[in-house]
Specification:
The chain is mainly α. The chain has helices at residues 18-36, 42-66, 72-94, 99-132.
């Protein structure tokens, strides 16, 4: 398999909601750990990612329900699909398939930017408006040009 570039945090992922931004930084770190782990470390990296994703998505789901976020069903459904994929990959890894873990890591790296840009940014804006009666303030440094 050809080497994959690392997945590193970039301020373009900032959404202006402190807790969400911190969780997203951890998400990027956990995906990068999946991309860079050797075969022997993949099980631990996948377990750490699965635990992070479950907590991450549960927290966002709770915010959406608690704050009556209108498009929550679609957002929650996307979270559930990612978790289902992670659990399926865990089953395959238990059977010795390490390649599928690498495929999942690449898919997550490709999925996250659009998920953050569209679904999570809308949630961040909704939460900041409801909690602070304003829009998120986002200061980005050294944002790479896409």
């Amino acid at each position: 398999m050809e080497a994959t570039k690392p997945f590193v945090w970039d301020d373009r992922y900032l959404l202006g909601h402190g807790e969400m931004d911190a969780t997203h930084r951890e998400f990027v770190d956990r995906v990068n750990a999946l991309l860079t782990a050797d075969d022997a470390g993949l099980g631990a990296a996948l377990a750490a990612f699965a635990a992070h994703a479950a907590a991450h998505f549960a927290e966002e789901n709770e915010w959406m329900v608690k704050n009556d976020f209108p498009p929550r069903d679609c957002h929650i459904d996307e979270h559930n699909k990612v978790l289902a994929s992670v659990h399926e990959v865990q089953r395959h890894l238990a059977e010795g398939d390490v390649a599928i873990v690498r495929e999942l890591a690449v898919a997550l790296m490709e999925w996250f930017p659009a998920h953050a840009d569209y679904l999570d940014s809308a949630l961040a804006t909704w939460l900041v408006k409801r909690l602070h009666a304003g829009a998120p303030l986002v200061l980005r440094r050294n944002v790479a040009k896409a």
